Inverse folding.
């Protein structure tokens, strides 16, 4: 199991160097005693508490989850005790008023934002909108990575259990309302694909969403020719993605159930390697009972696994935004076979840069074809790398993000000038 290591130094750098919190908070009467030493003490204790109490039950949370037994919802082992320790330690009341039983410490983000107008404040994901103070008057940007409501809608479409369909449909409606209301509070909204930008304009009322291409580190994910057959190198299909994410779990399970038997029928020596943290116990058990499948769990570096594979599969049926793992595989030269949703939002061409296959039979046929045809793999590999280099490198994305921030500041200045 991966051990969580707190990084209080990173948070101290943000508070002290980036935000200048000690001096600014010291100028506010309620927080005159909140100096750098006190902040450091609180951060160190928080890191220790998370590492020793909060982090350990996480694996059980991923693998077991909540259960409904005899009319009662049961949390995973250790969750109840961890929450009680959280409450007993006074952590929920750090910023509450002393007369209400709190410790009177500052809600740092709100206090600093209220004291200082930054040129622009960037919020990552729409969920971070809850941290935007109602009275904040500066330029703001929300960087969306998905159309969040769409993810819930797709869960509802794919759910086989009628009760779960109702749950996902309810969550979709709640997220749809929240997403629209929250995004309208920002000066500018960034989308990661033109498709998402159109959705935000049409369904969330965003006047001019800005599209930023997904960026890939082309030096880190350097290209090499696809793996060759033979020489003890079994035909290998790889999937890369966190296995504690519902969309990935659904896609991999569907691939194992529906696609993999068809691949193995044509290529009995084929291997399917799933690279990603926290694969659930149910999937590991399914892999154990199915020939040729292995789960790596968390790895420090995905590159050796991708470079050893002949094909990268993206069998997603649920999701939103763009698929950075697709670009990483393309950059490294591993041919990609994906569903429409797995490649959704990416400006790549089916047949030139990847193979789009939605049906299980189509996915299996494409994978087997690539496993047996090195020239086809090489052609896809080179075309995909050229595409990523031209349109999706980090420098291209960085320039687009800089433009988005400058646009937000210009729009904010224009609005202030018209008041």
């Amino acid at each position: 199991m991966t051990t969580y290591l707190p990084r209080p130094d990173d948070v101290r750098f943000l508070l002290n160097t980036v935000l200048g919190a000690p001096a600014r908070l010291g100028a506010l009467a309620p927080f005159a005693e909140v100096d750098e030493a006190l902040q450091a003490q609180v951060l160190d204790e928080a890191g220790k508490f998370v590492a020793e109490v909060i982090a350990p039950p996480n694996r059980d949370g991923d693998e077991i989850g909540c259960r409904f037994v005899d009319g009662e919802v049961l949390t995973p082992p250790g969750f109840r005790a961890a929450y009680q320790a959280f409450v007993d330690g006074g952590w929920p009341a750090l910023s509450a008023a002393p007369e209400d039983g709190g410790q009177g410490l500052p809600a740092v983000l709100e206090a600093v934002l209220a004291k200082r107008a930054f040129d622009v404040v960037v919020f990552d994901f729409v969920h971070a909108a809850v941290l935007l103070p109602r009275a904040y008057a500066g330029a703001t940007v929300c960087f969306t990575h998905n159309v969040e409501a769409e993810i819930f809608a797709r869960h509802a479409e794919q759910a086989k259990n009628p009760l779960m369909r109702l749950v996902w449909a309810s969550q979709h409606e709640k997220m749809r309302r929240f997403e629209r209301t929250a995004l309208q509070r920002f000066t500018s909204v960034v989308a990661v694909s033109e498709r998402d930008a159109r959705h935000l304009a049409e369904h969330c009322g965003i006047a001019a969403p800005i599209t930023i291409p997904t960026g890939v580190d082309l030096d880190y994910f350097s290209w090499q020719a696809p793996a060759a057959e033979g020489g003890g190198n079994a035909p290998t299909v790889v999937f890369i993605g966190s296995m504690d994410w519902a969309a990935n779990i659904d896609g991999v399970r569907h691939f194992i159930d529906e696609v993999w038997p068809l691949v193995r029928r044509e290529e009995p020596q084929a291997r399917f390697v799933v690279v990603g943290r926290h694969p659930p116990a149910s999937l590991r058990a399914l892999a154990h009972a199915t020939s040729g499948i292995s789960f790596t769990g968390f790895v420090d570096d995905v590159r050796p696994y991708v470079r050893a594979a002949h094909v990268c599969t993206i069998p997603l049926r649920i999701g939103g935004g763009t698929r950075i793992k697709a670009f990483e595989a393309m950059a490294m030269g591993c041919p990609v076979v994906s569903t429409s949703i797995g490649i959704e939002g990416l400006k790549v061409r089916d047949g030139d840069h990847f193979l789009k296959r939605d049906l299980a039979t189509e996915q299996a046929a494409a994978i087997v074809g690539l496993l047996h045809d090195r020239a086809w793999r090489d052609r896809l590999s080179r075309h995909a790398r050229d595409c990523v280099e031209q349109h999706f490198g980090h420098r291209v994305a960085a320039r687009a993000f800089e433009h988005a921030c400058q646009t937000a500041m210009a729009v904010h200045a224009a609005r202030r000038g018209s008041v």
Q: What stands out?
A: The chain has 16 helices and twelve strands. The CA atoms of residues 121 and 395 lie 21 Å apart. The longest helix spans residues 394-418.
